[in-house]
Give the backbone structure.
Amino acid sequence: MNEQKIARINELYHKSKAEGLTEAELKEQQILRREYIDSFRQNLRSQLDQISIQEADGSITNLGEKFGNKKGN
């Protein structure tokens, strides 16, 4: 998600509060919001996949390998 798309999301939000949106603008807003959410989730999942914890016995568990490859994540 680039800065131009984020700026457009904000622009559409402010326009919706001020004067309302056309049907085409509502559709564009929905598409951009979905793209933003998907991008956010992908980035968060990538960060979480890099987390490792040290168990009580001293072993290290990579949570990305343990939980990261499940469907729906």
User: Anything to note?
Assistant: The longest strand covers residues 52-54.
